[in-house]
Write a structure and sequence with these properties.
NUDIX_hydrolase-like_dom_sf, disordered N terminus, hydrolase, globular, hydrolase activity, metal-binding, Nucleoside Triphosphate Pyrophosphohydrolase, alpha+beta, 29% strand, NUDT22/NUDT9-like, three-stranded mixed beta sheet, 257 residues
Length: 257
């Protein structure tokens, strides 16, 4: 369990173990390499479904959030439709397949994080057989960083973020469509480019959030995908990354054995 207080004295979100669930566990202690992971990307097939009665609430909710937190800004995010391990490669090894579309942060705040989330999940189950069909489901990334002396690197979240302000967390963030657009030179994304961004984004988050140079980090390996009940089942793709030193860490970093 973790809890926190924001600077204005309001209590932040408290998380318990039961608040999290697994979309997928790779079942490998050291994770799976990128060569065992596939992406099927489609803006058309894997975007969220629209529920007309709640769409006006998304715009109103976003304006309210911006008034309360002027630092908020909208941006495109990847959306996870589903993930499984049903396919195998030529050697009989299981392959992880992500089905990914696009969403944005505004829709996340107005669906997953809104008072309508429960209704949208119920309607998704009834009409689509998928509780997340009408939700934004942006793809987060997170990393379990293991140092050379077997410590786990944790960090303290900023006090102004909308989820878990001030709480202890692993380094993470989001895979970014804008980075894929740079690689592809257009908005027509390839499956391989989206896959590359999934794995590379977690290294960039570690570099930017806790000041570890990329040269000190191993290639990320996929552990699995978890979901958070308190944010409508929002998915986070979790990786294990090995770290060869401990000399570059920022002061707010905590090491756990």
């Amino acid at each position: 369990m973790t809890s926190s207080s924001t600077p204005n004295g309001t209590k932040g979100t408290t998380y318990y173990e039961d608040d999290f669930f697994m979309f997928l566990s790779c079942g490998a202690r050291d994770g799976l390499p990128k060569s065992r992971v596939r992406v099927d990307f489609s803006k058309e097939k894997y975007g969220r479904k629209v529920e007309p009665s709640t769409e006006p609430n998304i715009a109103r909710s976003w304006e309210d959030h911006k008034r309360n937190n002027p630092r908020l800004f909208n941006g495109s995010k990847f959306r996870m439709q589903s993930v499984d391990m049903l396919e195998k490669d030529g050697e009989g090894n299981n392959l992880v397949t992500f089905r990914i579309g696009l969403t944005d942060y505004r829709d996340f705040m107005g669906t997953n994080m809104s008072r309508d989330a429960g209704y949208l999940m119920q309607k998704g189950r009834q009409s689509c057989g998928d509780p997340h069909a009408y939700l934004s489901q942006p793809v987060g990334v997170g990393s379990m960083i293991i140092t050379s002396d077997d410590q786990v690197v944790m960090m303290r979240r900023s006090s102004w973020v909308s989820e878990g302000p001030g709480q202890l967390d692993r380094p993470g963030g989001h895979a970014e469509p804008k980075e894929v657009a740079k690689r592809c030179g257009s908005d027509e994304f390839t499956n391989d480019a989206v896959l590359d961004e999934l794995f590379e984004s977690v290294i960039c988050e570690i570099r930017d959030e806790i000041n570890i140079p990329e040269s000190f980090l191993s290639e990320p390996r996929l552990l699995g995908v978890n979901g958070n009940h308190k944010s409508g089942g929002r998915p986070s793709v979790e990786f294990i990354v090995r770290y060869a030193s401990s000399v570059h860490l920022k002061p707010n970093i905590i090491l756990l054995r």
